[in-house]
């Protein structure tokens, strides 16, 4: 029974981390309502996560009434989510750039883009723009980007990625972000603008998508 209890605690704490990754910040009351547990149980989990360095708490000023305490992920907490990179990758790219020139590194990222394009194009066939946006979000979500698609009132589509599996590489080699934007534009056959970038210090990557303009 003890092992079962520990597994349940681990699962609850993982769910809390996932919720904070999605929402950015949440109060204990909001977390309690979402998970359907007692306030005492949630606070015990929050205290344990805070003590272990996964989350932090800060005061957020409300529009009315007293400030409330909100929780958010620390760098360690953010690092819990999958990021398929390593220091070795950066070292190899740096060595390649030094010995063969930056053009070779550009070609590597462009080759990756083209490979993703070949695998993604068949999944776009037969879809209108709304369907292509949904399909692209599904592809990105399966690759660890925690992607979500939505539509604004003005008809603009939005893809939001809450995680970047290659963020450390993309922070140094901007070709990665450029190639991803080119990939999205080709797969969606639409006008795509990146309005927030994880690798540039944002909290997420966000893309606004509109029907392709006709000249």
TrEMBL record:
InterPro entries: ArsR-like_HTH, Carb_Metab_HTH_regulators, WH-like_DNA-bd_sf, WH_DNA-bd_sf. Keywords: DNA-binding. Pfam families: HTH_24. The keyword DNA-binding applies. SUPFAM superfamilies: Winged helix' DNA-binding domain (SSF46785). It comes from the Bacteria. Gene3D superfamilies: Winged helix-like DNA-binding domain superfamily/Winged helix DNA-binding domain (1.10.10.10). The keyword Ubl conjugation does not apply. PANTHER family: HTH-TYPE TRANSCRIPTIONAL REGULATOR SRLR-RELATED, TRANSCRIPTIONAL REGULATORY PROTEIN-RELATED. This is Transcriptional regulator. The lineage of its organism: Bacteria, Bacillati, Bacillota, Bacilli, Bacillales.
